[in-house]
Amino acid sequence: MEIGATGGRIHPYYGVFSPVRGKYIDLVANQPLPFTDLAFDIGTGTGVLARHRVERIVATDVDACALDCARENLTRLGLKKQVDVIEADLFPEGHAPLIVCNPPWLPAQPSSAIEHAIYDPDSRMLRMLPRRAARAHLTPSGEGWLILPDFAKHPRSVHARSCRRGSTAPG
Q: Rounded distance, CA 168 to CA 158, Å?
């Protein structure tokens, strides 16, 4: 699969959420970065949000298949040396000045493994993620980016929401 913002092709594994709507990847790739030394990519999936403009990225996922998929794609894209792919339930140890996540966004119960990338029962993850990032994983002036599609209003656009450490996240 060709991903323009990555400058190459990736291979989404079966069961790993595929970035078929690449607009969110372009959105992240074209944003001015507040920091370029370290970033966390939470729930990395195929690894496409990890970019070469950051010196070091720690990409996490809880799914073993997604971790293998991300490692292969990052190798294919020539990013293997600057991206550490680790198994973690959301955040790795430590703090980063930039945290990027494309979380599940629909408030429904998943009925299969792949649906965990889309459905967030009772919006639990969306309520918890900004608060937990701001309190425990962002550096003092860090930013957290939640990449969320806006299907209801604009079927072909996406918006990024950010949180800063010390701010009060909704929910």
A: 23
